[in-house]
């Protein structure tokens, strides 16, 4: 329902002009002065305790260093925040908006960019800590789901799909190494694999992984979906899912609600293989007592889905300066190193180690990635995200085919 509302509202605002902000990050002293005393409402997914705790730590640092109050507005779906900004623009609320900062990427970023709902291009590159960002070697920092970012959002972290298994129950030598091998393994081990039900982010990430492996020409996924090719391009994906569901957990008649639910099924011994869009997730879960210490990671040598996640500032944010200061702090070596540490979050950095001074680099080198985390060089190739329009259509088709009411 929310997506249908979002699409309709976007159409209604297509002719509205973008609103120009009053200042940029170029004059940083002015930004710092303006930010002091402001409250930043940070709309961010709130489904993980460790991430919420990290944001809470950042809030304390921002308060003590810059006099900025950061308040997390916990979301279960980022589209809710996008819809809020959209509704405010439709109502002519071009100043004093209720959303100051959004954790965002993918279709939500594409929607906000398309309709002029974001602070003007280039502000991210003006941030003082941008000089540390590894935009030269990490293409997903400048292109999000095939959409040029153009400085409309500041990178916050990296993500790449990784798989986890319990070494006490499975032989590492027999792990599947492709989507087809995973299907063959599932057929040989009925009921031991599943994925979160779309539109859950982790669940749709699995669908993208299979699609990328099964499609004959990946370049078609770089372009907006077209009706006349959708069925042909996605047929291998849905043929795969039709077969998988017959041997999946609960025979494909039910799915875990989200990643935490799927993780619990591994901990309970109901599933043997799970996955997450964070290579450090297994180590973090072990450290938190959520998974046994026999869990380990593996990947597909041919590559797995990868992207960058960002923070963005709505065009009508009430606390623009405070949001800029927050985005800059989240890019600082200290904040990025803490975020990469599995003891706190385990989210890979967007910074280049070569751009850091020795002391900052040492902070990263001292991080214990954890017993279940693959080294960056072991993750294999990063596969780029399809154009956002593909997943909108695929989620609709998945729902039509597989939900109980159908």
UniProtKB/TrEMBL annotation:
Pfam families: SBP_bac_8. Residues 1-20 form the signal peptide. Keywords: Periplasm, Signal. It comes from the Bacteria. The keyword Chaperone does not apply. PANTHER family: PROTEIN YNJB (PTHR42779:SF1). NCBIfam families: PRK11622.1. This is Extracellular solute-binding protein, family 1. It comes from Chelativorans sp. (strain BNC1). The lineage of its organism: Bacteria, Pseudomonadati, Pseudomonadota, Alphaproteobacteria, Hyphomicrobiales.
């Amino acid at each position: 329902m929310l997506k249908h509302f979002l699409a309709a509202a976007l159409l209604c605002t297509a002719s509205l002009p973008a609103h120009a902000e009053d200042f940029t990050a170029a004059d940083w002293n002015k930004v710092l002065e303006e930010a002091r005393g402001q409250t930043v409402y940070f709309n961010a997914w709130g489904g993980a305790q460790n991430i919420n705790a990290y944001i809470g730590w950042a809030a304390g640092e921002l308060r003590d260093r810059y006099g900025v109050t950061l308040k997390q507005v916990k979301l279960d779906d980022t589209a809710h925040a996008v819809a809020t900004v959209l509704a405010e623009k439709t109502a002519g609320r071009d100043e004093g908006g209720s959303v100051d900062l959004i954790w965002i990427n993918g279709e939500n970023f594409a929607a906000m960019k398309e309709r002029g709902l974001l602070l003007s291009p280039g502000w991210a590159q003006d941030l003082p800590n941008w000089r540390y960002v590894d935009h030269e070697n990490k293409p997903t920092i400048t292109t999000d789901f095939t959409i040029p970012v153009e400085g409309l959002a500041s990178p916050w972290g990296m993500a790449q799909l990784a798989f986890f298994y319990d070494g006490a129950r499975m032989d590492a030598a027999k792990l599947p190494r492709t989507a087809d091998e995973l299907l063959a393994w599932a057929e040989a081990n009925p009921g031991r694999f599943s994925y979160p039900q779309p539109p859950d982010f982790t669940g749709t990430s699995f669908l993208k992984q299979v699609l990328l492996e099964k499609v004959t020409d990946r370049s078609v996924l770089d372009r907006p979906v077209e009706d006349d090719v959708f069925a042909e391009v996605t047929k291998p994906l849905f043929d795969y899912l039709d077969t998988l569901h017959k041997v999946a957990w609960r025979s494909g008649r039910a799915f875990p609600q989200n990643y935490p639910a799927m993780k619990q099924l591994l901990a309970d011994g109901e599933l043997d293989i799970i996955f997450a869009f964070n290579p450090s997730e297994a180590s973090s879960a072990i450290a938190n007592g959520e998974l046994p210490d026999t869990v380990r990671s593996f990947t597909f040598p041919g590559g797995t889905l990868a992207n960058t996640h960002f923070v963005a500032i709505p065009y009508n944010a009430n606390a623009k300066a405070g949001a800029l200061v927050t985005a800059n702090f989240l890019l600082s070596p200290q904040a990025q190193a803490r975020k990469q540490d599995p003891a706190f979050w385990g989210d890979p950095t967007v910074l280049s180690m070569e751009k850091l001074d020795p002391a900052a680099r040492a902070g990263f080198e001292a991080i214990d990635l954890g017993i279940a985390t693959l080294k960056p060089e072991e993750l294999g190739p990063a596969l780029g995200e399809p154009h956002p329009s593909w997943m909108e259509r695929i989620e609709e088709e998945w729902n039509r085919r597989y939900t109980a009411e159908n």
